[in-house]
Amino acid sequence: LWILAWIDDGSSPYYAGLNLIMVGTVLIMRWRAGDGVINALFCIGGYLGVSLCLGHQPADIVVATFFLSVTAVFACVGLFSYNKLRFREFCLREEVAAQQAELAEGARDVEVKGQALNSALEEIKENEARLLEAEKMASLGRMSAGIVHEVNNPLNYAKTALHALHMYRDDVTAGEREDFEETVSDAEDGVNRVIRIVSDLRSFTKGETIMHEEVRVAETIEMARRLVARDLRGIEFKASIPESLMVAGNSNQLCQVFVNVIQNSVQALEEKGDSSDQPRLDISCGEVQGGQVAVTFRDNGPGIAPEDLEQVFDPFFTRREVGEGMGLGLSICHQIVESHGGKIEVVSSPGEFTEFRVVLPRYWDQARDKARPEHSDFHKVETKKVSIP
User: Fold this and answer.
1) In a 10 Å sphere around its CB, with 0-12 CB exposed, 13-18 middle and 19+ buried, how is residue 141 labelled?
2) Does the structure show a pLDDT above 70 at 14?
């Protein structure tokens, strides 16, 4: 201020530099309105003080002060308007942020409720499927009870007739006796086979819930094979299982698992269609860490696509046509095996094989074995090869 007034010698009515300084500080510093007023008063007061000290003409001082005041008014009004706009923008941003947060919270609530609804719907579908499965098993149980009742009487007649035939053995001539005995033996085998099938069907559907009984794996596999023997025609079926091997669980439920896994392999082999390879299903056993038993089902079917492997045990997952299955078989197997303290796994190579492995706790006779034997005869496998006509 002093330099400008001294250089111009008080003859200039308008100090452009001082006006620019006043406006520039307001624009650059972006003060509040009160700070802008203080800055304007400081500039005007400073100019008046310097001008009076230098003895400028009153007219020049009035004109210069007027222009400085006008500039100060514009600067302060502009600063006030700018701050008001900034405050309004800040409020709008806060309001928008609050609305966005509210919308995000609402979206999360909708997503959580949607997931809960989907879970509830899935649970309802699973419960409906279980009820349907239970009703089907109950119907099968009633039907099997009727079959047992109706078939047992003719079987008893047949067994009585065979016993009577044995009584006439000595009346047959020596030349015909061999054919006679062979025919009677075949008839007895057929009757006994029917008896075993009926017994298996009755045991399979009576729904026992004992979970820690002694279950012979070989017998349970054989029971499952007899139940699906018709489906195994044309398939090379081989079961390599130790006759003495036992697991802890429920024989009927484990038979249901084995039946479902075998049927799954049979359906896969049927889907493979014409092939130069003989359809084959191999069942074997092996011991795994922790005193458990692994029953392995391996077929040379078309395999399972990699993207489907993680879903094969999910309820209602199926790649078959509508009406050919609900996709519950393997899911039920998974639940049954887990309830036995085991696990079921699957590995597959598309176009080559599919292998299901059912891991179950081994049964140890505490009365006979005070401790687990250090050297088990588990690997002394008694192989049984079954050919299905």
Assistant:
1) middle
2) no
